[in-house]
Amino acid sequence: QVIVSCLVLIGLFFVLTAVIILLLRVIRLRQLIMLMFIVICLPALSGCDDESVTIDGTKILDTFGRTGRGQGEFIYPRAIDITNDGTLLIIDKTGRIQRFGLEGTFLDVIQMPLIETGKPTGLSVGPDGNLYVADTHYYRVVVFSPEGEMIRQWGQFGEDEGCFIYPTDIAFSGDGRIFVSEYGGNDRISVFNEQGDFLYCFGSPGSDSGQFARPSALCVDRSQGRLYIADACNHRIAIYNFDGQLFGYIG
């Protein structure tokens, strides 16, 4: 009986070997691996009806864009804002301001006039519907109409009032005041009227109270009359009122 059992096992071994050899000849190895993967994973996949992607529990609704210089492509996107009619505006390191629908459909592009010495880092839609760009390495603010026409600009290199070194972002109080953050030696917030005329400024380089080290981004709460400033190299968020009075810090 032992001999018979051994012969049966040997026979089964040769039969299975022959079947495997035949499968490898008929089906490519890659296809066989894919078939095995489907057979193994099908029971688990059959119970999944949610096609959304999650990262650390956060649901990703959609993505768009890829690396490149074509329509709908980006090279280091740097700033984003949205207009009242739901148009997304995204500026990247190529100095292009691309406009998209809310679903990511490419609409058109606005090209910054100069990009040879550097690229803009800030972009904001103003209460007037115009597009304001912090043209960082050209030491100025550039304003475009909703149609993409450049209508005005202000600023020049320097430390005097109304001048910039490296402007980074722009925000609006809602009562006509425009806030511009900058770094590179001034490290302050300058305030202008809607025509770009200088009004006042606050802050200085440093890490003490009321000072900044590379203020990089601005956000306003018009209902509370507060300006939030990302004080990047001091690793904190500074909170001011619109007149430049410090309320406190987060972080």
Automatic annotation (TrEMBL):
<dbReference type="GO" id="GO:0043161">
    <property type="term" value="P:proteasome-mediated ubiquitin-dependent protein catabolic process"/>
</dbReference>
<dbReference type="GO" id="GO:0061630">
    <property type="term" value="F:ubiquitin protein ligase activity"/>
</dbReference>
<keyword id="KW-0812">Transmembrane</keyword>
<dbReference type="InterPro" id="IPR011042">
    <property type="entry name" value="6-blade_b-propeller_TolB-like"/>
</dbReference>
<feature type="transmembrane region" description="Helical">
    <location>
        <begin position="6"/>
        <end position="27"/>
    </location>
</feature>
<keyword id="KW-0472">Membrane</keyword>
<dbReference type="GO" id="GO:0008270">
    <property type="term" value="F:zinc ion binding"/>
</dbReference>
<dbReference type="InterPro" id="IPR050952">
    <property type="entry name" value="TRIM-NHL_E3_ligases"/>
</dbReference>
<dbReference type="InterPro" id="IPR001258">
    <property type="entry name" value="NHL_repeat"/>
</dbReference>
<dbReference type="GO" id="GO:0000209">
    <property type="term" value="P:protein polyubiquitination"/>
</dbReference>
<protein>
    <recommendedName>
        <fullName>SMP-30/Gluconolactonase/LRE-like region domain-containing protein</fullName>
    </recommendedName>
</protein>
<keyword id="KW-1133">Transmembrane helix</keyword>
<keyword id="KW-0677">Repeat</keyword>
<dbReference type="Pfam" id="PF01436">
    <property type="entry name" value="NHL"/>
</dbReference>
